[in-house]
């Protein structure tokens, strides 16, 4: 059927083509004009129309007699186009995921390069301060002479860092290198009413003997984080825990929990100071009655701000 149709279309085209050419010639000789065009151009247009007619007639016959052609033209092509559009939409999330993965890879490469740089710095000299390490801590309270107080803090930090980085240098000089915008930001914030902590941190690894140390500040509001008499953490002592080994383990766990808690509240102090002979107090309490449960509590002895030392005592009570 398909071969017969192809042969028929070839014959049909062969028959109509001479007719179109003959028609164009006749029109040219008759000097017939359409839309005031020259006869030659009119003949050309008639020939083009005849060719278009042949194509249209061929497609029409294919649609009329070929089920497969109709299927491909009216069903398969729209379906393929729709499938292509849906595939493009489905690829969008994959493109975004690919971009995200590329960003992560670039980030990891930067971290790796930074690590390589740090290793090189460690190998080539004696590192006295690491990148991000706090070099100096100071407390400042808002007052009319705040700029003068800040200048004193900067000078103290300079002298302290110089003694560590260039210990043999007698002459006092400015070793810390600040960004001017950081200084202005400190002045802007500390001008507000309040009590503040200035952490001066190293922007790079610092080697012994370096002439300059690049720094950046971190500014914290020095709020009270622990109040006097507050129970910061507690633990229960069961009957089977009432021996020296278990009690000592419980106390260490309790102090570790206390340290974690004050860190969460914003304390910049690393150590907890204990007052009183709490081991003796606990031992005496257990001697009186060892058949009941006890509660161990870490209690603050004073109001403490973020930069203040945390002073506590351990209390024991019956349950």
Task: Describe this structure as you would to a colleague.
The chain is an alpha+beta fold and 319 residues long. The chain has helices at 2-29, 39-65, 67-124, 146-165, 180-190, 244-264, 278-288; strands at residues 127-129, 134-141, 176-177, 195-202, 206-207, 213-221, 224-226, 231-237, 272-274, 294-300, 304-305, 310-318. It has three domains: 2-65; 128-222; 225-318, no CATH class. Helices cover 55% and strands 20% of the residues. The mean pLDDT is 77.
Summarize model confidence as the mean pLDDT.
77
Whole-number total of structural domains: 3
Tell the overall outline.
Answer: elongated
Tell me the fraction of residues in β-strands, as a range: 15-25%
The largest pleated sheet is described as:
4 strands, mixed
In terms of per-residue confidence, which ranges show pLDDT below 50 for 5 or more consecutive residues?
Answer: none
End-to-end separation in angstroms reads: 100 Å
Strand order of the largest sheet: 2-4-6-3
Q: Give the helix level as a range of percent.
A: 55-70%
Order of helices and strands: HHHEEHEHEEEEEHEHEEE
Radius of gyration: 45 Å
Class from helix and strand fractions? alpha+beta
Helix segment tally? 7
Number of strands: 12
What structural keywords apply?
single chain; 319 residues; alpha+beta; 3 domains; 4-stranded mixed beta sheet; 7 helices; 55% helix
Topology readout:
Elements: H1 2-29, H2 39-65, H3 67-124, E1 127-129, E2 134-141, H4 146-165, E3 176-177, H5 180-190, E4 195-202, E5 206-207, E6 213-221, E7 224-226, E8 231-237, H6 244-264, E9 272-274, H7 278-288, E10 294-300, E11 304-305, E12 310-318
Parallel strand pairs: 3-6, 9-12
Antiparallel strand pairs: 1-5, 2-4, 4-6, 7-11, 8-10, 10-12
């Amino acid at each position: 059927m398909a071969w017969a149709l192809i042969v028929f279309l070839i014959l049909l085209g062969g028959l109509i083509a001479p007719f179109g050419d003959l028609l164009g010639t006749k029109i040219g000789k008759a000097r017939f004009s359409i839309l005031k065009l020259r006869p030659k151009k009119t003949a050309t247009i008639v020939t083009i129309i005849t060719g278009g007619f042949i194509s249209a007639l061929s497609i029409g016959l294919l649609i009329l007699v070929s089920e497969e052609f109709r299927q491909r033209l009216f069903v398969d092509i729209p379906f393929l186009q729709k499938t292509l559009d849906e595939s493009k939409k489905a690829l969008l999330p994959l493109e975004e995921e690919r971009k995200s993965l590329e960003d992560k890879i670039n980030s990891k490469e930067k971290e790796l390069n930074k690590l390589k740089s740090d290793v090189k710095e460690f190998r080539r000299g004696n590192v006295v301060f690491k990148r991000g390490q706090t070099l100096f801590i100071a407390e400042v309270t808002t007052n009319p002479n705040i700029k003068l107080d800040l200048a004193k803090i900067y000078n103290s930090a300079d002298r302290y860092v110089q003694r560590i980085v260039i210990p043999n240098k007698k002459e006092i000089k400015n070793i810390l290198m600040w960004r001017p915008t950081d200084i202005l930001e400190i002045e802007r914030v500390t001008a507000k009413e309040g009590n503040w902590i200035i952490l001066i941190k190293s922007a790079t690894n610092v080697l012994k003997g370096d002439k300059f140390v690049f720094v950046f500040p971190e500014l914290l509001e020095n709020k009270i984080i622990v109040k006097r008499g507050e129970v910061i953490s507690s633990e229960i002592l069961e009957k089977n825990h009432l021996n020296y080994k278990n009690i000592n383990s419980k106390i260490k766990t309790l102090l570790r929990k206390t340290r974690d808690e004050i860190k969460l509240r914003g304390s910049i102090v690393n150590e907890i100071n204990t007052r009183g002979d709490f081991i003796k107090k606990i031992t005496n309490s257990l001697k009186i009655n060892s058949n009941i449960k006890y509660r161990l509590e870490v209690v603050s002895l004073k109001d403490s701000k973020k930069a203040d030392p945390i002073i506590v005592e351990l209390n024991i009570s019956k349950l």
